[in-house]
UniProtKB/TrEMBL annotation:
It is found in: Cell membrane. The keyword Aminoacyl-tRNA synthetase does not apply. GO terms for cellular component: plasma membrane. This is Type II secretion system protein GspF domain-containing protein. It comes from Ornithinimicrobium tianjinense. It comes from the Bacteria. The keyword Ribonucleoprotein does not apply.
Length: 196
């Protein structure tokens, strides 16, 4: 096999490897927004807890910790939620602001929290359990924040494992055949030529 044929085969395999490389996940920009979730103003990502990718899941644990700190300092639930709402970016801050307004207006706490979306479910559960048990909700909020962080780390580990699996195919298609064609095949041909 001539050198030019070997180079041509290696180049073809490299192109095949590049073409089969997994494309990066689509990122939403200002001009391309995800479709809104049914029954809500927020996008699909926000309903899952990522707040449309602009502050999302990683800010919910911090918000829960801030509410717990405010409650530990002697603030009421309404005052703690309102104060934390003023520090969060949209849409999370607006959602907590609606919770604070609803609680201050005497609305049912369960219904008020349910209007905010699934990403605030840990806060709803922690405050509800603390109220039912007649204890301060500080520890429950801190535990919920720790659980959310643990889930976020697990999500990153799963994404990393998926990336490793996706990298195997392009590497196998490009580098292994190129190695065989440029190293093993010429060696075998040279041995066959010397033996014959």
């Amino acid at each position: 096999m001539s050198e030019s044929v070997q180079l041509l085969c290696a180049a073809a395999l490299a192109v095949a490897g590049i073409l089969s490389w997994p494309s990066p996940p689509r990122r939403w920009s200002v001009t391309t927004r995800p479709p809104p979730a049914s029954g809500g103003v927020l996008g699909t990502d926000a309903r899952r807890g990522t707040a449309g990718g602009t502050g999302g899941r990683h800010l919910v644990p911090e918000a829960l910790e801030l509410i717990a700190l405010a409650l530990g300092g002697g603030a009421s639930v309404v005052a703690a939620v309102a104060e934390v709402a003023s520090t969060l970016p949209a849409p999370l801050g607006a959602e907590l602001g609606q919770v604070a307004s609803g609680l201050a207006g005497g609305d049912d706490p369960v219904q008020v929290w349910e209007r905010t979306g699934d990403h605030w479910a840990p806060a709803r559960r922690a405050l509800g359990l603390a109220e039912a048990a007649g204890v301060a909700p500080t520890e429950a909020l801190l535990a919920a924040a720790a659980d959310l962080r643990r889930d976020a780390v697990a999500d990153v580990e799963v994404a990393t494992a998926r990336l490793a699996v996706r990298l195997v195919l392009p590497l196998g298609l490009a580098y292994l055949p190129a190695f065989v064609l440029t190293t093993v095949v010429p060696l075998v041909l040279a041995l066959v030529r010397d033996l014959s």
